Amino acid sequence: MKSPVHIRSSAAASLLAAVVIFSAVSAGAQLGPPASSSQGSQAVQLPLSGRAGQNGSVNTTQTPVPGATTSVNTLNSTVQVQGPYASSADSTGKIPFSGKLSLREAIDRGLAYNLGAVDLAQSVRQAQGASRVARSALLPNLNGSVSETYETENLKALGFRFNFPIAGFIFPTLIGPFNYLDARASLSQNIVDLTALNNYRSAAAVSRSNQLSSLDAKDLVVLAVGGTYLQVLAAKARVDSARAQLDTANALYQQTLQQRSVGLVAQIDANHSQIQALTEQQRLLSLQNDLAKQKINLARLTGLPPTDQYDLTDDIPYQPAPAIEFADALKQAFDHRADLKAAESQVRAAELSRSAARAERLPSFSVNANYGAIGTNPAQAKGTYTVAGTVRVPIWQGGRAGGDVEQEDAALAQRRAEIEDLKSSIESQVRNALLDLQTASSQVELAQKNLDVTRETLDLTRQRFDAGVTDSVEVVQAAQTVASAQLDYINSLFAHNIAKLSLARAVGGAAQSLPQFLKLP
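and the corresponding structure tokens:
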């Protein structure tokens, strides 16, 4: 028969051991396999539209403008730059500016510092980061931990109730203090998880789409900077023409005053010539103001200080555009347009995201393991490890998988519609650019002929005025006709160059093809 003391000691020891084990488990010691997620991987929902989130745009428009009685009809070309494409970061800090700006330098500065390109470059970085996050679900996750635990436990608070008495022994309410050390490394790895795999592939496709959108943004920067540069050249040509017309008007006014002083013409003729000179002076001031503003706009696009105190070094004269048929231009556009390839990548991303949603219904397999040493101190620590393989079989998730599939189907349908719309838009851009190019080319030739005729008419009229055959009114009218014809030529030349620039953008790779279209040195 066992002694009472022995019985009490065994019971106390057993109780203490149970409490220690319970305390260790409640404190987080990894004595068993780690808990696995009850939800599993979930498909990453893509936004409904795959188009770039920024609101900037660059467009060229050509509208017919009726000419005056003695001038031709011209295309009124404008370049509309909106959003981040109208802004830029400072470029002079890294690229010194000499005060003279060529078209090639303007485009290079725009490609490097225009916010339209800079913003999308940062979007590329974000998409690459999202792709790396999605990839992390497929790679091993390794973590290390060291914990030192020192604690006491309240048995009554933990729910221990001892209703059987032991003679000579009182069950303690408070156990401890006791301590243990646990140093451990844990590893988790998804072996088979098609949802996570397709999430990563979809994120990689989105990253690829953003990279292509960034390339397309560079084409828009070329269109914005190149078009604005051409606008400045056109504004400068209008100023030069107005200055020449002012010189002509002043010369006529001085000639009329001389003739009036000797009684050859009436005072009304002198008044007519003076009015014409004052009108040309007012017109010159207005055009000079427009030129200054156009140069400030160009500076804003290229990262230069917002001032007009610089000179343009390039003059873009009339040069026939490279011969290209519509079918060839459209094929080149479909093969090279970065925005079309970006839209294709967005469709691919939506397809993979839908596959990820469908894979939520499939089993997955993962492995979790840990190894470490546990003991009251490092010298007494013993190695322990756990290896657990988990097969997760979705049975019912409240319809979550079906809802995810439906959302991704909607995104895929939207992106397929967007790519069809983009193809139609590209085709219209190519057609419009070719039509504008053909019309503007003809108008340049007509405007040049008209300008030659009006100049000849002005010379003949001035000869008649010198001979006293006509009055100054006819000379003023002839001078106005020359000014109108000069303006028509400038507008036609600008429209022709803008049409070539628009065609370079329409077929893709504008930065590379621009020298071919504009015949740059």
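(Above: one complete record from the training split.) Residues 1-38 have pLDDT under 50 and may be disordered.
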